[in-house]
Amino acid sequence: MRTSTGARVGQYAALLAYLVFLAFPFLWLISIAFKPPRELASLHPTWIPEHPTLDNFRQAFDEQPLLRAGLNSLLAALGAAVIAVLIATPTAYVMARRRGRLAKAATGWVVVSQAFPFVLLIIPLFLVLKNLGLIDSVPGLVMVYVVWSLPFALWMLTGYVRAVPRELEEAAAVDGAGRLRTLVSVTAPLLGPGIVATALFAFITAWNEFFFALVLLKTPEKQTLPVILTHFIGAEGVADLGPLAAAAFLATLPSLLVFALIQRRITGGMLAGAVKS
Questions:
Q1: Does residue 140 carry a pLDDT above 80?
Q2: Would you give the DSSP letter of residue 230?
Q3: E strands within 20-122?
Q4: What is the domain range of residue 211?
Q5: I want to staple 177 with a disulfide (CB 3.0 to 4.6 A). Which of 75, 138, 181, 216 is the partner?
C-alpha cells in the first residue's frame, strides 16, 4: 500500500514538473510582453510586471505589418487545411478499405514520410514551384503546406475510417449505392469529428510553420507571421525584446486556442490510427 501511494505521488510530482516545464516559456513570454523597458533591463527580473504596460503591443504594430502578416498566415493555413482534407478523405477511405499490397505499401509510405527532414524536401519543392511560377506567392506556400501535412492527415483519417462499421457500407451497397455515394452519404457524415480534427491539425501546422515560409516568400507584403517575428531582431542579433514578446504572444494565441478546443479529438484520431483492425 505504501509502495502504491509513493508511486502515485511520484507520478503526480513528475507530471507537475513536466507541466511547469511546458508552461514556463509561455508564462515568461506573457510577463515580458507587459513589462516596460526599465524592467526588461533590470538585473533582478520578476515574474509579475511591477508597472504593466501596453506600449510593447503598440510598438510592435507600429514597427511591423502584423495584421497583414496575420492575414497571409490565415489564408495559407485555411487553404492548406481545406485542400488537405479534400484530398485525404477519399484517399484514406481507399487505404482503410483495401487489403492489397498496394494499400499496405501506401500506409507504410505515409508513416516513413513523416521522418523526412525539411531540408530534404525544400529543394524539389522549390524547383516544382519555380516551374509553376508560384515562388514568392501564398498559393505556392499553400501547396507546400498541403504536401507537408497530408501524410499525417491520411494517417489520422485512415484510423477514423477503420472505426466505421463495414456493415453500414454493405447495407448501402445492397440498396444500390456505389462507392462514391457510400462515401459521401454514409461514411463521410460519421467521419465528422475526424475531419474536423484533421483540418484543425493542418491549420495549426501551417499557422506555426516558419522554414518553408522563410525560403519561399521574399516580398515583405506576402510574408507570414512567423517570418515577420524575425524582423524584431536587428542585424547584430540584438532583439527588440518587448515588442518581440508582444508580437509572439499575439501570434501564439490562435494556435493555442484551436489546440485547446480540439486536443481530445486529435488524441482520439491518433489512437484510432494506431489500432490495427
A1: yes
A2: G
A3: none
A4: 58-274
A5: 181
Residues 94 and 147 both lie in one domain: yes
**pTM of the predicted model as reported, rounded to 2 decimal places:** 0.79
In tens, the pLDDT along 142-158 reads 999 998 888 888 888 88
Considering the domain architecture, whether residues 79 and 175 belong to the same structural domain is answered as: yes
168 plus 48 within the same structural domain: no
Rounded distance between C-alpha atoms, residue 271 and residue 277, angstroms:
12
Residue type, 100: G
- Which amino acid, one-letter code, is at 143? M
CATH of the domain at 141: 1.10.3720.10
Instruction: Express each pLDDT in 208-255 by its tens digit.
Output: 999 899 988 988 889 999 999 988 887 677 778 889 999 999 998 887
